Amino acid sequence: MWREKPILLLALALVTSACFPWDREAPATTITRTVERGDADSASVQVRMGAGRLDVSGGANTLLDAEFIYSNERWKPEVLYEGRSGRGTLTVQQPSIKEIELSTRERYEWKLRPGNQVPLDMNVAMGVGDSTLHLRDLNLKTLDVKSGAGNLTCDAPPQSLTRLTLTAGAGNASLDLSGAWQNNLDATIRGGVGKLTLRLPRQTGVRVKVVGALGKVNANGFRIQDDAYVNDAYATSAIRLRILVAAAVGAVDLLLTP
Fold it and tell me: What distance in Å separates the CA atoms of residue 133 and residue 238, rounded to the nearest whole number?
């Protein structure tokens, strides 16, 4: 009889696995939210996500169209809006629980689509997870992004942005500043542990000062002037991008685009 026990145990394991597929993705809830701007002629947008997957892009006909996917009802995001004296304040945040711990079976995804009808100031704070911020079509005046652990991809609107602050954590960060800029830009980028890639316009004046970086700086098409990297257009361009890159641990790639 003892020879049959391993076979019986194996058969039981196979039946149990078939009946209870532990690696199957947990059921998830999907909800949508829409926020109207009311009489606001400008707004600030604050996004606070502790862990998960964040995607932001423009194109809404309202102040915000949003889709949220979550595997746990306790994770239902909070969307708050207040308008006062022509200024709107929109906050999208994870619920007031200590932390969200995601397993490989669980989903926590935010897909946010702000509108471009009024000027926006945006502040994004992401803890753990990948973020994709396609902001090129937004009427965005200022942008502040903090990323903890995860890869970050961001493109900025050259037609409106005047100030940018980006703080990267652990993971690769890619920032696209290409395009036909309409205003001067002051940008501060605090690099983390990982590769930092900056895509920069060839036809607009660009000056990048790198301090405290521990990795290699790749800057083809730039020359060094006053301890900073400048492109050929910097000497004559009426509009300039002034960028400070600080404390990057990893390679810094400066890429000129047409």
Answer: 28
Q: Are 62 and 38 in contact (CB under 8 A)?
A: no
Structure tokens that stand for 78 in this block: 């909070």
Residue 18 confidence (pLDDT) above 50: no
Contact in structure between 60 and 100 (CB atoms under 8 Å): no
Q: Using an 8 Å Cβ cutoff, are 135 and 122 in contact?
A: yes
Model pLDDT for residues 24-57, shown as the tens digit of each residue: 566 899 999 999 999 999 999 999 999 999 999 9
Residue-by-residue DSSP string for 163-191:
EEEEE--BS-EEEE--S--SS-EEEEEE-
Q: Global pTM?
A: 0.87
Nearest to 115 by CA among 58, 67, 46: 58
**Residue 9 buriedness (CB in 10 A; 0-12 / 13-18 / 19+):** exposed
Confidence of residue 8 (pLDDT cuts 50, 70, 90): very low
